[in-house]
Amino acid sequence: MYETFRRLRxxxxxxxxxxxxxxVTTEREVAVNTARLRSTEPHxxxxxxxxxxxxxxxxxxxKDRARRYGIPSELAADLERYLQSRPIVARPASTAYRxxxxxxxHRIAVTVxxxxxxxxxxxxxxxxxxxxxxxxxRDRANRIVIP
Length: 147
Known about the structure:
8 helices; about 0% strand; about 150 residues; mainly alpha
């Protein structure tokens, strides 16, 4: 019992994605059973747990009280943000992370905007090529001397 308390004080808990991905028999059986209950494969469950859910779990289990969730509603709000594919508070917010979350929430609009942007770039390149060809033809016509 003292050993358990010492480990709780001194060791950080493993990330859920790592814990479910381990090859230890009893934990592996738990992962397989949990995945079966969720109608998924164990490696897919590990993928789902990796990322935001790992960050939420680590923040909830943080040893330093100042770095943990202050009240349960903060944890619930972070879980709600995760379910809505919004940036969570537990994770350090980088620009790339925020952009990924935005794209995930607005896939159709981002796809349409990217398609329009690609169309605009294609149009600009084709116009430039056409302008070059027109200029070349004009210059060639001006060089030809009519007798």
